Every structure is written in C-alpha cells, then in structure tokens.
Amino acid sequence: MALPRPEIITIGAPSGPRHxxxxxACVEELGYRPRSISWAAxxxxxxxxxxxxxPNSYLRFDTPDQDVADISALxxxxxxxxxxxxxxxxxAGSEARLAQGAIGSPAQLAFxxxxxxxxxxxxxxxxxxxxxxxxEDVALAFDKTATLERLGKAGIATPRCLPPVAGFDSLVTAMxxxxxxxxxxxxxxxxxxxxxIALARHGDSWIAxxxxxxxxxxxxxxxxxxxxxxxxxxxARLVDCLAPLGLHVESWLPKIGIGNRxxxxxxxxxxxxxxxxVLRTSNHPMTNLHLGGERASIDLLIHRIGRDAxxxxxxxxxxxxxxxxxxxxxxxxVAVLAxxxxxxxxxxxxxxxxxxxxxxxxxxxxxxxVRRIAERLKEGRTTSAQVAA
Amino acid sequence: MTISxxxxxxxxxxxxxxxxxxxxxxxxxVTPRLRCGYDAPTPREQGLSLREKLAxxxxxxxxxxxxxxxxxxxxxxxxxxxxxxxxxxQAIVFGMWMDNGESYEVTxxxxxxxxxxxxxxxxxxxxxxxxxxxxxxxxxxxxxxxxYSAIWGAFPRLGHFGVRGSNNLSLGAINHPTLHTLVVESGxxxxxxxxxxxxxxxxxxxxxxxxxxxxxGADTSVDDxxxxxxxxxxxxxxxxALRNSEYSDDLATALATAPILDRIKMLDLxxxxxxxxxxxxxxxxxxxxQLEKLxxxxxxxxxxxxxxxxxxxxxxxxxxxxxxxxxxxxPHYYVAVSE
Lengths: 389, 339
Description:
The structure holds two protein chains of two kinds. By secondary structure, chain A is an alpha+beta fold. Chain A folds into three domains: 7-137; 168-251, no CATH class; 255-349, 2-Layer Sandwich (D-amino Acid Aminotransferase, Chain A, domain 1). Chain A is 39% helix and 23% strand. Chain A is built from 13 helices and 15 strands. In chain A, the strands form three sheets. In chain A, strands 10, 11, 12, 13, 14 and 15 form a six-stranded antiparallel beta sheet that branches. A five-stranded antiparallel beta sheet of chain A has the order 8-7-6-5-9. In chain A, α4 crosses α6 (106-126) and α6 runs antiparallel to α7 (135-142). Chain A is globular. The model of chain A is unreliable at 383-389 (pLDDT under 50). Chain B is 22% helix and 16% strand. Chain B contains nine helices and twelve strands. Chain B has helices spanning 50-58, 73-81, 109-117, 149-154, 191-198, 226-230, 248-256, 276-285, 303-312, and strands spanning 9-10, 13-17, 31-34, 91-95, 127-132, 160-164, 181-185, 206-212, 239-245, 266-268, 293-295, 316-317. A twelve-stranded mixed beta sheet of chain B has the order 1-2-3-4-5-6-7-8-9-10-11-12. In chain B, α3 links the parallel β4 and β5 (127-132). Chain B is globular and about 70 Å long. Mean pLDDT of chain B is 92; it is low at 59-66. Classes of the chains: A alpha+beta, B alpha/beta. At the A-B interface, α8, β6 and β10 of A face loops of B.
C-alpha cells in the first residue's frame, strides 16, 4: 500500500521571507506547497488545525515574522501570562507599531507563542502527528536566563548570568557584587538583538552600545543604527525603561576578531540532518544582519582557530541541542573568544533556521529540514506499521 | 571602525599565546604574547539534582571546566621568563592587562619593571608591543598606559616599539642606537607624547602616530610637526604615518610644500578625515609621484579626486570611503578611532 504523501503544516506568518523560503524548500524537495495556517487564524479558531490534519501530517511552528495580525493575536494570547509574571504589557490595538520597530513587550509575545504552541501541540498529539518542537523547548529557548542555566548544568561553557535586576541602580550593584565591568543587558525573552545593550564600565565612565532607542515620549524602538552612549544618565534611563519588560544580564566575553571585525557563529542544527554554520561579523558587539552585521564563510574562523577548537565548538552545540530534546531544528549562537581557543554558547533560537544565503553542499537549512521531515514521516509510518503488525 | 582583531603576527613571526610552561616550543620561531583574560566561561555546578551529582561522582565531566586564571600580566611574564629557551625570544606582544579580572586603574608598570630587571635573560629582544587590546576587551581610551623610559637603556638591540592607548603614557627621552620603528596608537594623542616621539634620538625609519579625537585628549595641530616636516628630524625616515587625524587636510596641505615629502617613500594618512582639499594639495604639489605608496583609507575624498590622486602617485590605497555626517545640516568628519 502506498504511503499517504507527507503533509507539512506550518503555523506561522502567512507571508514574508521566512514563509517564502520554507514554501520554496517544500516545492523543491517534495513538489508541492506546505499547508499554512497563520497564528491569527489558529488563535481565532484552533479547530482549523484539527481540520487540516491528515494521517501523515507534520506540524511545524514558525515565528509571526512581521505580520501585524499574527503579532496582535499572539500578544493577546500572552497577556495574562505576562501580567502574572509582572511584565509590562502592550495595550491592545497598538500592535501595528510593533511591526515598525517599537520594542513592545517581547516576553508577552513569547508567552503568547508558548501558549499557542501548547494548544497546537495538544491537537497534533491527538492526531499522533510529529511536531517540529515542543512547548517546553520553546519556553526554554525564549528565556535567555533559563537557557544559560540549563546549558551550564549540562557542562557547557556559557557567559556568567547575573541575578535579576530591576533597573540601572540594581544593575550597577549586581555588576559590583559579581566583579564584572562588562556585561550584556538583554531582554530576557527578546529576539534579534531588540533592546540589547553591550555595557562597559571604567570607574565613573560608562559606554553602552545598543540598537535600542528611547524617543521623547519614552517609547522604546529597535533601530538599525547602533549608537554609542557615554552619558551615564542616558544609559540609566534606557536600562530603566527596558527593565519592566524583564531583563537578562550576562558577562560580556570578548569575542574573536576576524579581519578587524567582531565575529561570532550562528549554527543551525537539524536533528539528524546536518549542521549549517555561518560566521557573522560586525563593527560593533551586535552581529545581527539588520544592525550592520555581515555573513562570512565559517572557513575563515576554522582556519584561524584550528580544527580541534572547531570540533570542540561542534561538540558543545551537540550537547546544547540535547537540552532541547523535542526540537528538530535549533539555531545556536556561539562566541569563539578573543583567545582564539575557548568558546561559549550564547543563545538558543527555537526559530533560528532561517538564514539567508546559507548553504552546505548546495542545501539550505530549510531544504535540509524538509528532506529530513520527509524521511522522518517515512520512518514514523514504518514503525507504526510494524507495531500494528 | 575600531580595532576588533588581535594581532596574529608581529615582527615577522606568528604570535603564540604563552599561558603556561610548554606553550611556546621554540622562542626564536614565534612571537610570544602575554595577556589576561576576562571571566573564563565556566559551566556551573550548582543546581544539580541528586541523580546528576551522583552521576558526576562516577563520571567526571569532560572536558574539565577551565581554571579561573587570575594571574596578572606580570605573573605571566615571570612564568615565561622561567621557560627554557626564553633567551632566544626576539619579540614580545603584551595584550590585555588586568588585576583580579579588572582593568580599571591597572597599568603595565609592574610588567615593564620586571621586563627591564630581566633584560639579561632577553639578550636578543628586538621588538615590543604593549597593548594588543581589542574593543571587545577594552575601549582604546580606557587603556591605562605607563612610563616606558626605562626600556630604551635596557634593550639596546630594540628595533621596533609599539604601544596602544595613551592614558598616562610616557615614552621618556628616547636615546637609542637601533630603534627604527616607533608606533603610538591612540584615540586621542596628547601633544606631550608627540613631542617625546619627535625628540627621539634614534635611527627612525617608520614613525606612526594615531592622533585621534579632541574629545578624547587629542590636542595637537599641524604646528606640532614643524620640525618633522622641515626635514630636520630622522634622516632615515622612510614611512611617515600620521593616522587617525582630525586635521588630515592640514597635514596634507603642509606636506605638499614640506621638504620631508621628497625624502619619504611611504605616506600614510589613513583612518583620518582627508577631503578633496587635502588630496588636491597633494596632487598640486607634483611631488607624490616619488612615493612608493600613499594610503588614505577611511577618507572623505570624492571619487573624481581619488582618481586624480591615483594618476599622481604610483600606488594609492583608498579603501573604506566615508560620508560626512550631516545630522545638524553641517558636515561632520570623524576619525576611524575616536574612543
């Protein structure tokens, strides 16, 4: 009997570059498009997922990208959890501003995403369908403090986390207690460097490098222009405005420089389907593309640090992926340090699989992922057939 | 643009970090570097479950967590000086200096002192660099420097001396029979250092000064270079590098009529604020055809004038063109390293 054809259902942004890239990967690998449900449609009526489910379905989750309707729906879904966690929330109706760079409340969005994935996972499990990740893994990956603690427990080198801080004054105290003069202040549930500050202290002098900007009315924006603030008061004001959104503070480990640019590694891991590393370089501590970062071949780094040091990076990322056992794909950020020898895991991204123009052996992470999903569905069918027999 | 990469090579040799005995197998073949590290990332042990703790007893974690290394730069130098074969060291690079993980108010003074005390153990030393420190490690304007006046007498074979950072930097009176390369990298170089450098009584061939930003302590002008430009100093000068300058145009204009221009082979005005004005002065001088290389990288010169320059000199390097910032309607020109 012929197997039913594999059906991939993605819940995520209904359009945009991520959506396009994954759709193209499905067409190239399978010959047909994936089914697609927007977060807004799913949250409006979760039964739409139930109706889409087929015997050989695979449920894949993706981000809302810049889709205003999806972002709004997820923000509403995360409101109660954010209030319960004491996180500042975004009033309903203001979501259009979020797609235009307002920082909003990333924790609220993350909580909404976790709630929605929890609901969708329950439906998938009812249908015995595989899912690309689990609510537990997404919750862990979206919480930078929890991620570093979990990785540390697994014996993986990470930057040191500082205890929670409520604002600039408590940040200063926490830095003094920890004996740190250089830290990264991040939104605990943030993504894409939104609200991120690289902060250094030298006696009474401070420098903050950040893409976050405070407008005259106290609104926080994620800009593409990285600023260097040296006025302690301006830095304090920025930190104090970010703090109600939930902060994560970690030691700022000096990264290696390649070609006079700061470099770090994004490594997309496809469970059972290979590694997709890319070097990210920048003129400032943030290496994100939209903040002026550039992509470069990982070979530049491997050549510099040697095969052994690179193998130990790979070993750490493999250990790290085991901390996310329910995820079929992860985007891990790794800093190789200025000593060109040691490294530290910085972040895990549950939706870190979309890296433009990255291919290994002619395959981009999305295509590799689709290929692996098809294999997995085949394996899954064989196994259940055997069990039934 | 700032300095984001550590040196990979110095004095013609590959750099190898020395942390512990055995790291450098042959001191004559490489350039050892000594530097302190920030807060080595260590896996945390707290918060383990009983099961995990028990598992650790039977299977120790691998690799073992890196040791906390609180040694300061002087400790590292002391350890290196005890190495067999250290006598053949020809160059040393000193990177980040810290005490107990802090760089604030920490200077390399005790390291310089130890180096000088042990001059007889380093008879072949010909090159030194103090301050291979990137912006990921410390802001250039925060690097605490020191007094290097004891170096000149202690190492009579020294040829190349470089420093990065000019806070509390002093070169002292340089009287040296062989020093041919002097480099001071700074985001804001005070006139006192420029005077010390220009007063060097040494066979300087390569003079490199990063002049920097007024907001970070730069207080020189083209007048400070009068004697240099007139040709009264450094008869062997081959490379003149006045980089990272806020007054590159003034320098270029003065150079256009200065006797020194006929004597040098390399002119480096990179990382600065050169515009069409300075570039046209150099072109108009008709004297840059004899240069082997002219570097204006990180410049504000228009494309047309860059082309004119290219036709006036055999080898022009004009990478990293900049656009003036006109946030208040006035053009602002920034140097590459103003920190």
